[in-house]
Structure formats: C-alpha cells, structure tokens
Amino acid sequence: MRTFIGDHEAVSTDEFIELALGTPLELWLGVDGETAEERAARLDAARDILADYPDLPDDVSRVAAQVIEALAPELFNVVPIAALPRPAVRRRSAKGRVAA
Asked: What is the C-alpha separation between 45 and 57, in angstroms, rounded?
C-alpha cells in the first residue's frame, strides 16, 4: 500500500511524519551529539514555527490519537476480552472434610 501526503509519497514512517508536520522530525526531537549552539538554533526555529502555527501541537496530537486508535490492535496486540477463552472453574467438593 502506498501512502501520499499531498503530492508526495511517504516511503517510511519518519518521512510520513515529516510530511504530515511539514517540518523535519529532527527539528522537534533533536539529534544525537548536537552541540549546545545547534540545540539553541533548533529550539529557536521550533519556537518560530510554533509562533506562526499556534494550532500545530493540537493538530499533531489529534493526528497521533487517530493513528493510535486506527492501529491500536497492531500496536498493543489488543484482543477484545469477549474473544478470550474463559478459565475453567475448579470446584471443590465437601467430601473428605472434617468439621472443626
């Protein structure tokens, strides 16, 4: 199955997220080994984007919730309780017991 965001095909999960956000994923998450100066520049850029698009966090949260809801069975290996077999009930008989 192919996934498109606008005119662009997303060939990986990271690319899908990047296309959906409109920004590189590394902008929000950072990269290993970045310097303090690189981190400050990245955070400044992120603040500028959030200033221009104040609804972005809500939009991202909504999309994430929709994806989790759609993929919940695969993500969490969820099985409805009604589909699970019921454990056998072991009943003890009163035979062989002595009254105290």
From this structure: 15
- Are residues 21 and 60 in contact, defined by beta-carbon separation less than 8 angstroms? yes
Residue with tokens 């221009």, as numbered in its chain: 52
Confidence category of residue 33, pLDDT binned at 50, 70, 90: very high
Residues 74, 76, 77, CA angle at the centre, nearest 5°?
65
For residue 46, the Cα-to-chain-centroid distance in whole angstroms is 21
Work out the end-to-end distance of the chain between its first and last CA atoms, rounded to an integer number of angstroms: 71
Take residue 84 and report the two structure tokens written for it: 């699970």
Q: From CA 15, how far away is CA 22, in angstroms rounded?
A: 10
Taking the C-alpha atoms of residue 19 and residue 43, their distance in angstroms, rounded to an integer, is 20
CB 17 within 8 A of CB 3: no
In this prediction the pTM is: 0.54
Give the residues across from 4 on adjacent strands.
9
